[in-house]
Specification:
Layout: H1 2-24, H2 29-40, H3 50-62, H4 75-94, H5 103-114, H6 124-139
């Protein structure tokens, strides 16, 4: 009997992580369903087996989902880094070095640089690289 409950418990654990990832990545219901469709060809996790749920979770991780924050990390440094990136982007625009100083334009550049679609989805290492790239661009 115990071995039968193991897949059910694993399934519950994976579903919980997927819903945390959806919230952490700030996906709307529509974006979430489209994401699922792209990853596993289904718009709901309801009928997915464990391998399908793992595929969804791994795809969320590739988009920047972190299952656990390390004790050294906090939201303040991340906010400071994202604010710095936005400020540098606006500074570039004001200096005439970009045509568009908007957030969507910034996200297009971030995707080109990192493969990640949104600034909020980048990790600390990626944000540091982005900051340094923007500083060098400003110096040119």
């Amino acid at each position: 009997m115990e071995s039968e409950s193991l897949p059910a418990e694993e399934r519950k654990r994976l579903l919980a992580k997927i819903h945390v990832a959806k919230k952490q990545l700030k996906l709307s219901e529509e974006a979430y369903r489209a994401f699922l469709q792209g990853v596993v060809g289904a718009s709901s996790c309801k009928d997915l087996d464990i391998s399908g749920l793992n595929a969804v979770l791994n795809a969320f991780k590739a988009k920047g989902f972190k299952t656990r924050l390390s004790p050294a990390s906090s939201h303040k440094p991340r906010k400071d880094q994202t604010d710095k990136i936005r400020a540098l982007w606006i500074e570039l625009h004001n200096a005439g070095k970009t045509e568009d100083g908007s957030e969507p334009a910034l996200n297009v550049w971030i995707k080109r640089m990192t493969g990640i679609e949104r600034l909020e989805w980048t990790n600390k290492k990626q944000r540091i690289v982005l900051i340094e790239s923007l500083k060098k661009w400003l110096e040119r």
